[in-house]
Amino acid sequence: MAKEITSRAENYSQWYNDIVKKADLAMNSAVRGCMVIKPNGYAIWENMQAQLDKMFKEAGHVNAYFPLFIPKSFLSKEAEHVEGFAKECAVVTHHRLKNDPHGSGLVVDPEAKLEEELIVRPTSETIIWNTYRDWIQSYRDLPLLINQWSNVVRWEMRTRPFLRTAEFLWQEGHTAHATQKEAIEEAEKIHEIYARFAEDFMAMPVIKGRKTENERFAGAVETYTIEALMQDRKALQAGTSHFLGQNFAKAFDVKFLDQNNQEAFVWATSWGVSTRLVGGMIMTHSDDEGLVVPPKLAPLHVIIVPIPKPAPAINEVAEKLLQGLKAKGVKVKYDHDEKKRPGFKFAEHEMKGVPIRIGIGKRDLERNVVEVARRDTKEKTSVPIDGIIDYVETLLNDIQTNLLKKAKGFRKDHMHTADDFETFKQIIESDGGFVLAHWDGTQETELRIKELTKATARCIPIDNLQEEGQCVLTGKPSKERIVFAKAY
Amino acid sequence: MAKEITSRAENYSQWYNDIVKKADLAMNSAVRGCMVIKPNGYAIWENMQAQLDKMFKEAGHVNAYFPLFIPKSFLSKEAEHVEGFAKECAVVTHHRLKNDPHGSGLVVDPEAKLEEELIVRPTSETIIWNTYRDWIQSYRDLPLLINQWSNVVRWEMRTRPFLRTAEFLWQEGHTAHATQKEAIEEAEKIHEIYARFAEDFMAMPVIKGRKTENERFAGAVETYTIEALMQDRKALQAGTSHFLGQNFAKAFDVKFLDQNNQEAFVWATSWGVSTRLVGGMIMTHSDDEGLVVPPKLAPLHVIIVPIPKPAPAINEVAEKLLQGLKAKGVKVKYDHDEKKRPGFKFAEHEMKGVPIRIGIGKRDLERNVVEVARRDTKEKTSVPIDGIIDYVETLLNDIQTNLLKKAKGFRKDHMHTADDFETFKQIIESDGGFVLAHWDGTQETELRIKELTKATARCIPIDNLQEEGQCVLTGKPSKERIVFAKAY
């Protein structure tokens, strides 16, 4: 089975597609650019959602739900925002179909044309800030800390499962504050939550930074980002948190009376992560045998396989393990299918990324042990049945820790610095990875670097070392290095 | 505050709208027929989701996600299905906006017209069965037990928050089976889960039954329904589970090889409940003072109010209660706002349906008691602080039980039988409620009854008493009574 996966060395892009397919995570649908998220893939997203939702709520946020559709005119109200989204949106123009009087089947009913077209939300700032105008009168209504779990649509021309799809699932937080300071703190707090989630749950190390003006969200004053490094040494923007200033408050006329009874515009943030994280997780940890999932996000932690097939003595031990592990909150299954050989099962569960496999064979039972194989390192160990429950619990933690350590090592190996453009270009073209380089701070230079190397400015790291230097392209003075990479 | 609510007696419909508004549950949006679900309303839906999701998973289902859009041609493949949905669907015709060259702002770019229009899903049978064709080859791929949490759009002309909106949130289960028997059992199992959820969690008694042919889902062979009675004595269809036969398998050519290597079409079910349940919950329990929420679905169980305002001794007891109750999983808050009087707070928390209010006053403290008020009966009791945690836990259960009992009593009071049409008509026109009557089994009679009385056939109860009788309209022979009512 594993042989069906193209190796990373051979064709990285095909390797990714193979894993998505063979691990039953997702597939393309009949609708251009839209994917079907299969149960194995959706279960990972559900685990991500549950954890993120908990973190948002612990930080004082509540969930709400706003309409799927946005009146066309709303989109135009924030000048940069419309620039960013008008060219890639699904437009609803009619509200009825009818049978063609000329007999050619179902057609759009021209009499059911909408007075104003509706846009399927690409993001919800406009409809939400139009609503907040009714919700906010005084400083007592602030802060408003709201999140929404929803689907959004951006008509992308080139799509890939999870990483870039026309429709995707995400959460979008939209908060309103009385002061600039508080709004910036909120954007930073979420930035921190995203980074913690990426490292502690996805085992995916990220660089925390601010976007350059050119890479900012359409309508934001400041965009905070977490950037991860994939195994092809390209960067993945994994989550962004925006300080929106008063841009949307002004566009939608959202004012409040402050404690001194003075009228002022409200300050805003918005922030989101999406099903793209599933793609990031796949690309961070998986190998040529298939998917690797960090235990904290795994739909299934342990698979028990009878060797060579179910038998009373084996089933009895399996049942004991199932009960013991379930009692500890470990998600475990017994693969008692009699029609598949152990080797086939091993490959199948490796492919699907189950973190631990326990093999129970007759000979092992005579010695009162079982064989434990970990997915990340593929090491196998004989473990006494008596201590197996504790062993599994510890091993799940070890795997989680090891995946992060390994990913950090990988990133370290591909973190470069470049002080002249030749070196910069050569690194980007050969190894890739993150390149720390001085930059003169102009959009012009940033775009020229992109043109020449395909590398983009990923971010200006938080707490960046301040050092004198010269822009890698223009030689102009610079006070800090920023992170460049080719990116998804 | 409560005075702002219209009484049920005065104007039931306005009462409902007032509650939705004053309890901060939802509001109309700028998009026709689409509502904004506010945090207080969404939290109730989240609790419903969590419980239903648990019940579906315990019954062996997994979640997945299918595209928002359905190619127009898919809709036409099942003849009855298209009849049911083509007239009320949002149609996406373009994928880009552009600036009008004539300067009138943002317009649809005519060059970005889709080759085939996309329908925003009104329900997902078609796109899902088109996908299942790839997933199902042999009996080993069956059963497929899949659920999806999603938003759907049906372009309704007359909308009401939660009860009927153009966009709504729901879950839709879509299962595939090797045999007719197994598919029918699945539809019945879900029907049972819906009824159990309605009674055990929403405290909303329901009649379980089958729909008449006329009231069936478009494309179903059998529709199972749960029907609840609202306080205006109109029925609410609260959830449906459909046995789809092989209709969608045939429309989308989904066949499998059975154990004897014979090719056969797959058997199907689909089933759904939606944010309409929130409307049903509101209408079942609320009163003229505001929302009433069953404890099992309440976002907040207990509100603690200092009387008349926070003070060190009061805060200390409040803190003790907060900790003790939270440790027991009770959701509790302390309303220490110094700017609002107790009376105002009482009215506010009553309005929002918090099941239990605990008032802590100085004089009470001298006697080591607090005042506990329950939202459902409005009874107040002095309770010793020592036993307060247990008292609250028991009381939450009592309230849950009492709400169901009360709702069952109400339903019993408005459950009628009619043996002639004059009586039938008179009951429907005066008291309303459910009317059990004989019917000759024809669509014609059913529609005529609707025309004459506005009452529709709600369902044919499961395990219905078989008795000889005459159709209430035509006098033709009948073997059982079915349930009629005016309905939402």
List the helices and strands and how they pair.
The structure is a homodimer of 488-residue chains.
Chain A: H1 12-22, E1 26-28, E2 35-37, H2 39-58, E3 62-63, E4 69-71, H3 72-75, H4 79-85, E5 91-94, E6 97-99, E7 106-108, E8 113-120, H5 125-135, E9 144-153, E10 167-177, H6 180-200, E11 207-210, E12 222-229, E13 235-245, H7 247-251, E14 255-257, E15 263-265, E16 267-274, H8 276-285, E17 302-307, H9 312-327, E18 332-334, H10 342-351, E19 356-361, H11 362-366, E20 369-374, E21 380-384, H12 388-413, E22 415-417, H13 421-429, E23 434-438, H14 443-453, E24 456-461, E25 466-470, E26 477-485
Parallel strand pairs in A: 3-9, 17-18, 17-19, 22-23
Antiparallel strand pairs in A: 1-2, 4-8, 5-8, 6-7, 9-10, 10-16, 11-12, 11-24, 12-13, 13-16, 14-15, 19-20, 20-21, 23-26, 24-26, 25-26
Task: Describe the 3D structure.
- 2 copies of one chain form a homodimer.
- Chain A has 488 residues and is an alpha+beta fold.
- Chain A has 3 domains: 2-61 and 129-285, BirA Bifunctional Protein, domain 2 (2-Layer Sandwich); 300-397, Rossmann fold, CATH 3.40.50.800; 417-485, 2-Layer Sandwich (Translation Initiation Factor IF3).
- In chain A, 34% of the residues lie in helices and 29% in strands.
- Chain A has 14 helices and 26 strands.
- Chain A has helices at 12-22, 39-58, 72-75, 79-85, 125-135, 180-200, 247-251, 276-285, 312-327, 342-351, 362-366, 388-413, 421-429, 443-453; strands at residues 26-28, 35-37, 62-63, 69-71, 91-94, 97-99, 106-108, 113-120, 144-153, 167-177, 207-210, 222-229, 235-245, 255-257, 263-265, 267-274, 302-307, 332-334, 356-361, 369-374, 380-384, 415-417, 434-438, 456-461, 466-470, 477-485.
- In chain A, strands 3, 9, 10, 11, 12, 13, 16, 22, 23, 24, 25 and 26 form a 12-stranded mixed sheet that branches. The first copy, chain A, has a 5-stranded mixed sheet with strand order 18-17-19-20-21, with helices on both faces. In chain A, strands 4-8-5 form a 3-stranded antiparallel sheet.
- In chain A, a hairpin with a 6-residue loop joins strand 1 (26-28) and strand 2.
- The longest helix of chain A is centred in the C-terminal third of the chain and has 26 residues, at 388-413.
- The mean pLDDT of chain A is 96.
- At the A-B interface, strand 2, helix 2, strand 3, strand 4 and helix 3 of A face strand 2, helix 2, strand 3, strand 4 and helix 3 of B.
